[in-house]
Amino acid sequence: MLTVALYITLALVIMALLFNLYRLMVGPDLPDRVLALDTMYINAIALIVLLGLWLNTKTYFESALLIAMLGFISTVAVCKYILRGDIIE
């Protein structure tokens, strides 16, 4: 039963990644593209967690936390660059 749920979830997360990739390529504005990229790394974290559940290991969860921290910092840096034109003041 868990494998069926993992397959369904995997298909839905991959579909969400494809929709985000479309928004990243076609997005009308720069903030839309930043938001699509932000959502793509969140979906990548979901894929890593699903892989950890499928393989029944804990190391993938630690890597997902590391990617989450790096993704948050990069999103803040890109938004600061869009607003001010400079990251470091």
UniProtKB/TrEMBL annotation:
Name the UniProt key words of this record, in alphabetical order.
Answer: Antiport, Cell membrane, Ion transport, Membrane, Transmembrane, Transmembrane helix, Transport
**Top-level taxon of origin:** Bacteria
**Membrane topology qualifier:** Multi-pass membrane protein
The yes or no answer to whether the keyword RNA-binding is present is no
Claim: Cell membrane is one of the keywords in the record:
yes
- Subcellular location per the Swiss-Prot or TrEMBL entry: Cell membrane
This protein's major location comes to membrane
Q: Which Pfam families match?
A: MrpF_PhaF
| Spans through the membrane | 6-22, 34-54, 60-83
Q: Which family does it belong to?
A: Belongs to the CPA3 antiporters (TC 2.A.63) subunit F family.
- The protein here is known as K+/H+ antiporter subunit F
